[in-house]
Amino acid sequence: MKRLIFTALLVSTVLTSAFLFAQDKKGKKKEPPKKELYSGEPIKALIITGGCCHNYLFQTYALGSGVQKLANVQFEIVNVGGNGTDAQIPLYDNPDWAKGYDVIIHNECFAKTTDADYIRKITAAHKDTPAVVVHCAMHTYRDAEVDDWREFLGVTSKRHDHKSEYAVKVALPDHPVMEGFPTDWVTPSDELYIIEKLWPNAKALATSVSEKDGKEHPVIWANEYHGTRVVGTTYGHSDETFRDPVFIRLLAKSIVWAAGK
Ligand SMILES: [Zn+2]
To answer: Could you report the per-residue pLDDT of 80-105, keeping only the tens digit for each?
Structure first.
């Protein structure tokens, strides 16, 4: 078994909103400000990021700080595996790696990692831990023969169309993730992932059309993986997408809904 050992750079940063619990002059705690989408007990979220082809430091910052303005979410971040296409990160060696988190956000890019045992350590935890999966997560483990990761994602994709500004058509406006989503959103410059298969437990929430062949592809979906909620979007290539408030709001809605809040 080919195994790459990387120096683990575990950036376990809690972007906690605790600093917002400012104290007034008498030392009494002020109530935290109400957030538009969710103000209850903090949702504990783990962002797993790293790998090829994207500006993951910026994306993680934009996602974390943007979502926290809309919803009470505490983030921890694991950014390991370098910036290549093949890595096995030590996080998953612990079978309880997802314990204690309400939701895992996969925003990583390791297309050439193929080890089935390794992939199944990840999907096993997701049988009872919800997830939000972003962009290159859909091409992570792309070269693997086993379908476990794709079944978890809810889609099979092996390639993408060129970068362009894609119109996004809402397919299921009544789904909680799509509540408030504009009907005329066009992405900043981003990649359209070609969806070969939408898995039986997945529902397309929004679609875009290929400029090459006119075919429609799911770009936002909700999946049910062994009864657990997974929300995905194939957008999120460019920094511009992560600067777009519509995209950040979509991620916030996805996190809150996947976490069951
Ligand atoms: Zn990309």
So the answer is: 999 999 999 999 999 999 999 999 99
